[in-house]
Design brief:
- The protein is an alpha/beta fold.
- 31% of the residues lie in helices and 16% in strands.
- It contains 37 helices and 46 strands.
- The strands form twelve sheets. The protein has a six-stranded mixed sheet, sandwiched between helices. It has a six-stranded mixed sheet with strand order 21-34-33-22-25-26, covered by helices on one side. Strands 27-28-29-30-32-31 form a six-stranded mixed sheet, with helices on one face.
- Helix 1 packs antiparallel against helix 3, helix 7 packs across helix 8 and helix 8 packs across helix 22.
- The radius of gyration is 34 Å and the shape is globular.
- The relative contact order is 0.06.
Length: 1336
């Protein structure tokens, strides 16, 4: 809250009052101390909490060294008074006012003291602290901040501690101030942000650090020798200490060696995957070479094999692995499984490159440890194995105890989720002893948290459940990484003494002392504990925040992991500082501190290492068993000379490299399975459940732990699905959590606006040929509101996805209408990028249209608003029968394509075309050869520059994200080019007018944008997009009431009226997977697993009930198994601990006759299936189909046009009796002022579904519904792709995606929260989340 927004009249203080001993304003001088206080005093006259303050002016106050006696008890009493005061202020606004008042009376802090050395690290606002020790040995503090609230926090601290002895200041702990959180001074509900609550903690730490230094100076103790470090600025790198100098020497590599390596890699098509812990010389060369040869990837161990597969896909014939042996073994096995056995994999040494941690897991003692888990009969066991172990270990242990692989990023959520799903589970973690002990310590700390705090870490746990799981969590006691083992007590002591106010980073594998230190820093926003990638991401985020503050700042990071990380860190930081230097001239410097010990060389036991010496610097700052080790000796066996040797000898002299080649596993497990098959099975936590558990545990353990490649292991589970609609996570791992993740708190790389299909025309409203309402004049208002929104959000640019005016616009008005819309776009304060659509070309030829849209030359182009991201705009009408002159080659080519592919006289009709061939209609087009070559060059260039690419096209590029009739003609050829490169993350499109989304087999997200044209008055369809390092975050305003700002209102603060689960079209059958008649894959058995996960999710969320939208089993289910199959599915629904409401679908009726009705619309009331042959409803349906569908196969729409295509046998109608019942129900609901949700297996609006899936008499049903304004949402199934629309009366229609068509490991189900003014669908995977605001 801004200070200017608060009236400060009548604010008083009950803390700084006469009842306390005098609190003089501190000055710094030699004793005796005389302080003159001219205009204000901390000794206030009024203690009444709500009366105005009467201030007394003191002319002079003389204070001697004995005059102020502040004991620790007195200081703590002051803190308690603060707590009681803020507790008495129940209104948060009053608390803020009190803080701002304390800020006003904080003694003046001179501008001369606002220097970098006085800055307090870790605070969002600028905070300065000046500390001195007076002649009596008492500490004197002055503080200042550019934030009034932060300044108020500082005032409280200074008031409590000023005048205390050094010993008393140092005796204070953060916990002594912890009680302030109950007074609303800490983040959480009703409080302030975590950055605010961290302020007092970080200021206290700085007070204590500077106090320690003054005590040492007073006692004549020499200052401790600083750790070696590298200081990075926009101008260069400075090394402090010989070890840092050794590291820095290779940060600017020899360009001759770089070019030599690049030439070899490029000529011989060799890819390189390397671990972060490489030798600095190797990393320096590889980092520079990456800019010239994109097939080099430096990362942690998790994604090395996946990167190798991507390299094989783009044509690499060899992959070199710079890491330990288990990494190269894994790369070899994964490449084989991905279908690239011909790609050679090479290690970097002719000797064994071991790993102390992997060796520990391969020892007999580890198998003995797991045998205890296997022998458990009373409760199931799960082995959670750290990823840094060999394939052989993973394979063998899996046959002892069901095994799932974790990373340091996700081990905590994995274990918590496992315990949540199976309460009596025993978890056996290994082999890393320190990580196991740290997990146990973390859980111990959680037992001291409130249930609310625990739920923020994992929603299904509380204090009681954490306490109950701890005895059942076991960890191996004899496995350590030699690098992290060496972060011992000497390092911890030195960090505590000299670096306690620095940012602290630590790998999850460090010993307990270091872990505790890092966790304490993390709690106050000054640290990170996790994987190497977590550490890199944390440093980058802090640097970006500093650049955004636009002030001089020095950031200090203690690097609590292997020193090889420094190359990637320095490169990333230097790039950020170079590209993000504030325009006001502010300078940001970043210091990377190596916490190595005082001994230079470590001798290691011969039993544990082949190398007798760990490489270190020669003078005073290397490694020690008492401190941190800067290097892993195994990783340093990967030298640049070895890499060059391997590259020079490939491919001709492969025989000379036999000792370097990564071997294949031909051995089998005790159960007769290949080690490679079992060991590299996709068992990363969150992706899969253990397969074939041993007989002692018949129960399969299925985990739902959400996993990204790199997440903070302690990151809170966010309720982001309540805040946004779509987030596309780049390189997103398949899991069955929601695709939506919270991007709040991060600074986007770039933000931009999007809108599609405005199709303005100054004509009366009409309908599409499918009957969907179109609002030709209102669409201009939608654009105007979009422009206002984009200007308010200050997005960098806007993309218009085509069809700027409508084809029905009178031709004499085409030019003026286009200029009118372009004029509205010009009101945006930044650049607008246009693309052309079919409706544009109906109105104006290209030579007139392109200049109006500020498009020079080709209608395809690319641009990079920031160095990290490139946008590629395609021209989908490059080959088209519209827009080009009569004899133009591109027009003639399009006409030939249509003649060949579409037999209809009307080339805009897809009649008779089935599946994807329906795209060959005149209103679509294709990308030409020249444009295709250009696209390939652009993506190749983007790959070299390590850019993320967003492809934009008016026409969609994936059939699962749109209707077949809206696809680019040669979408397959375009996507074949796109898939050659891993740089393309998202494809955005318009044209279809309906929302659509899918992620393709290569992990590329396809998002089709809804049309502005089809927004009823008062609603909108436009969006703003934030692109982050790893995700694209879309806030989409769609058909929402204009009374809500931007159409987006979060429901987080509200409690829903009711919550329920939804699933549609399970269509289970115990038969092999197949395909629909349109060629879409169907997973008949997996759909039952989707249902099981849905039931668990609904139970965990404690929804009130669940709705099954029909088609419980599939029509291909053998008739003799129908009853058993449907009973099996019903039994799975029975595991849900609430009522389940079912409705019937056509597939249900193919198997079993209708015997009962359900409390929803029965779309097969009039139907040729389900009723006896002589039933009146059957006869009525048969006659209806005879009249409406001339085909002998009544399931075929051949010859039917537009809305007639719904008259198929697998659809049905609502009968007269049911129609009367519906009318009565809605009339009654209106009287009771109820909001109504209509549920029907068959969709009720052509805008939300394919025509072929509609209820026969949907228009009659909607005529009844539209008589009343109580119906807010219509939910349906049947059309497996899903869809959404808002009809002319403001009713939302949401068709749910099918569980049947979820590939293994994915889901389609959801949870719905209904509020007074909206319905919020939170979907899993394929089921898109959507907020539907009720129209009044």
């Amino acid at each position: 809250m801004e200070a200017s927004a608060i009236s400060m009249s009548g604010v008083s203080s009950s803390v700084f009052c006469n009842s306390m001993s005098h609190m003089p304003s501190p000055k710094f001088s030699s004793p005796p101390i005389v302080r003159c206080i001219n205009s204000q005093s901390w000794n206030l006259n009024s203690c009444s909490p709500l009366k105005s303050i009467a201030r007394t002016d003191f002319s002079c106050s003389a204070v001697t060294s004995g005059g102020d006696t502040l004991t620790t008890a007195a200081a703590k009493a002051k803190v308690q008074i603060l707590v009681e005061e803020f507790q008495s202020l129940t209104d948060p606004v009053e608390r803020v006012k009190r803080l701002i008042h304390y800020a006003e009376i904080l003694p003046t802090f001179g501008d001369s003291m606002k220097i970098a050395d006085n800055r307090v690290p870790g605070c969002t606002a600028q905070v300065w602290l000046h500390v001195e020790m007076d002649g009596g040995g008492r500490m004197r503090f002055l503080a200042e901040s550019d934030s009034e609230i932060t300044k108020g926090f500082c005032a409280c601290l200074v008031w409590a501690l000023d005048g205390a002895t050094a010993e008393e200041v140092l005796a204070f702990k953060a916990e002594d101030f912890g009680a302030l959180s109950v007074a609303g001074l800490k983040g959480g509900k009703g409080g302030y942000s975590s950055s605010r609550s961290n302020t007092w903690h970080n200021v206290l730490i700085s007070m204590q650090k500077r106090t320690k230094a003054l005590v040492a100076e007073r006692d004549g103790c020499p200052r401790g020798e600083a750790f070696p470090s590298l200081i990075v600025t926009a101008d260069g790198i400075q090394a402090k200490g010989s070890y840092a100098e050794a590291q820095a020497r290779f940060l600017v590599p020899d360009q001759v060696k770089v070019q030599e390596l690049v030439n070899l890699l490029e000529e011989k098509k060799i890819g390189v995957v390397a671990h972060f812990y490489m030798d600095p010389e190797v990393q320096g060369v590889l980092t520079a070479a990456q800019k010239l040869w994109p097939q080099i990837h430096i990362s942690d161990s998790l994604v090395m094999a996946d990167s190798a597969v991507n390299m094989a896909k783009v044509g690499c014939k060899f992959v070199t692995v710079l890491g330990v042996d288990f990494m190269s073994e894994n790369v070899r096995a994964i490449l084989d499984q991905a279908g690239f056995p011909e790609v050679g994999v090479y290690r970097m040494s002719d000797e064994r490159i071991g790993c102390s941690l992997a060796d520990a897991a391969a020892s007999p003692s580890y198998m003995d440890y797991l045998a205890a888990g296997a022998s458990s009969v009373s409760s199931p066991s799960l082995h959670v194995v750290y990823i840094n172990t060999s394939l052989e270990t993973k394979a063998y242990t899996h046959e002892v105890v069901p095994t799932i692989t974790c990373t340091s990023s996700n081990v905590v959520p994995t274990i918590l989720q496992a315990f949540a799903e199976i309460p009596d589970l025993n978890v056996w973690y290994g082999p890393d002893t320190y990580m196991g002990a740290n997990i146990m310590e973390l859980f111990r700390q959680m037992t001291e948290m409130s249930d609310e705090e625990i739920a923020s870490i994992h929603p299904n746990h509380n204090s009681r459940s954490i306490k109950s799981l701890m005895p059942r969590l076991h960890y191996f006691q004899d496995g350590t990484c030699i690098v992290h083992h060496l972060f011992g007590h000497e390092v911890v002591g030195k960090i505590n003494k000299m670096y306690c106010d620095a940012f602290l980073t630590a790998h999850f594998e460090v010993p307990g002392e270091m872990f505790a230190l890092a966790m304490e820093a993390k709690r106050r926003g000054m640290g990170v504990v996790g994987s190497t990638q977590n550490i890199l991401d944390f440093i980058k985020e802090r640097v970006l925040e500093a650049l955004d503050r636009k002030v001089d700042e020095h950031l200090q990071f203690v690097l609590g992991t292997e020193s090889g990380m420094v190359t990637s860190i320095v490169a990333a930081v230097h790039e950020l500082l170079g590209s993000g230097t504030p325009q006001n001239g502010a300078k940001v410097s970043v210091e990377i501190v190596f916490p190595v010990s005082s001994e230079s060389i470590t001798r290691t036991p011969s039993s544990s290492l082949d190398l007798p010496i760990i490489p270190g610097a020669a003078s005073g700052d290397g490694c020690s068993l008492h401190g941190g080790c800067a290097s892993c000796p195994y990783m340093k066996m990967n030298s640049l000379d070895s890499l060059l040797k391997v590259c020079h000898n490939l491919p001709r002299n492969k025989d000379d490299l036999s000792m370097y080649e990564a071997g294949r596993f031909s051995l089998q497990t005790p159960n007769g399975k290949l080690i490679a098959d079992v060991g590299c099975y996709k068992e990363i936590a969150g992706d899969a459940s253990p397969a074939d558990p041993p007989q002692s545990s018949q129960r399969k353990i299925k985990l739902a732990a959400k996993q990204r490649s790199h997440i903070d292991p302690f990151e809170k589970w966010a309720d982001a699905e309540l805040m946004v609609f779509w987030v596309f996570r780049f390189c997103f791992s398949m899991s069955y959590g929601n695709v939506i993740v919270n991007a709040q708190g991060k600074q986007p790389l770039v933000s931009f606006g999007v809108i599609s299909d405005v199709q303005y025309a100054d004509i009366p409203d009409g309908r599409s040929f499918l009957g969907v309402p179109r609002y030709y004049q209102h669409s201009l208002l939608v654009l105007q509101r979009a422009v206002r929104s984009w200007n308010e959000k200050k997005v960098k640019f806007v993309i218009n996805f085509g069809d700027i005016i409508d084809g029905f616009c009178p031709k004499e008005k085409s030019l003026s209408a286009t200029k009118k819309v372009v004029g509205e776009f010009s009101n945006f304060s930044g650049n607008v990028y246009h693309m052309i659509g079919n409706h544009c070309l109906y109105n104006l030829p290209r030579e007139k249209l392109l200049p109006l849209l500020n498009i020079d030359g080709h209608a395809y182009y690319d641009f990079s608003p920031v160095p990290e991201v490139r946008f590629v705009v395609l021209d989908g009408y490059d080959i088209s029968s519209i827009g080009w002159p009569e004899g133009h080659p591109n027009r003639l080519k399009a006409i030939d394509i249509l003649k060949e592919k579409n037999p209809n006289v009307d080339k805009n009709s897809p009649e008779g075309l089935v599946g994807p061939p329906r795209r060959f209609v005149q209103f679509n087009g294709a990308v030409g050869e020249e444009q295709m070559e250009w696209l390939d060059r652009v993506l190749q260039d983007a790959t070299k520059l390590n850019q993320r690419v967003v492809v934009c096209s008016h026409l969609p590029l994936d059939p699962r994200a749109t209707s077949f009739a809206a696809l680019l003609w040669n979408y397959e050829e375009v996507m074949e080019v796109v898939h050659r490169y891993s740089c393309v993350k998202v494809c955005l499109a318009g044209h279809t007018h309906r929302d659509g989304y899918v992620m393709d087999s290569h992990g590329v997200h396809h998002r089709v944008l809804a049309a502005a044209l089809e927004c009823p008055p008062g609603t909108d369809a436009f969006g703003s997009v934030d692109i982050f390092e790893d995700s694209l975050f879309v806030i989409w305003v769609s058909c929402s009431s204009m009374s809500h700002e931007n159409g987006i209102v979060t429901a987080q603060e509200k409690k829903p009226l009711v919550s329920f689960g939804v699933i549609a079209d399970v269509q289970y059958a115990d038969i092999p997977d197949g395909r629909s008649f349109l060629g879409v894959p169907r997973y008949y058995r997996h759909s039952l697993l989707v249902l099981q996960r849905a039931v668990r999710s609904w139970s965990e969320k404690k929804v009130n009930f669940a709705i099954n939208f029909g088609d419980t089993i599939d029509g291909f289910c053998p008739k003799e198994h129908s009853l058993a199959a449907i009973q099996r599915v019903i039994d799975e629904f029975g595991a849900f601990d609430g009522p389940v409401h079912h409705m019937i679908g056509n597939h249900c009726l193919y198997n079993l006759p209708a015997k009962s009705s359900f409390p929803f619309l029965d779309g097969y009331d009039i139907s040729a299936i389900g009723w006896p042959q002589d039933h009146p409803n059957t006869i009525k349906a048969v006659n209806f189909l005879k009249e409406r569908n001339p085909n002998s196969d009544k399931n075929s729409p051949n010859g039917l046009v537009g809305l007639e295509r719904r008259f198929l046998m697998f659809n049905g109608a609502v009968g007269e009796e049911q129609m009367e019942w519906l009318d009565n129900i809605l009339e009654d609901a209106t009287k009771l002022n109820q909001n109504v949700v209509v549920c029907c297996h068959l969709p009720l609006d052509p805008g939300a579904s394919s025509i072929e899936s509609l209820l026969w008499n949907y228009d009659q049903v909607m005529e009844v519904i539209h008589r009343y304004n109580c119906v807010k949402v219509c939910l349906g199934g049947h059309d497996h792709r899903g869809g959404h629309s808002v009809d002319s009366h403001g009713v939302h229609h949401r068709v749910l995606e099918a569980a049947l068509e979820c590939p293994p490991g994915t889901n389609a189900f959801g949870c719905i929260d209904i509020f007074h003014d909206r319905l919020l669908l939170s979907g899993a995977d394929r089921m898109e989340s959507r907020e539907m605001v009720f129209c009044s």
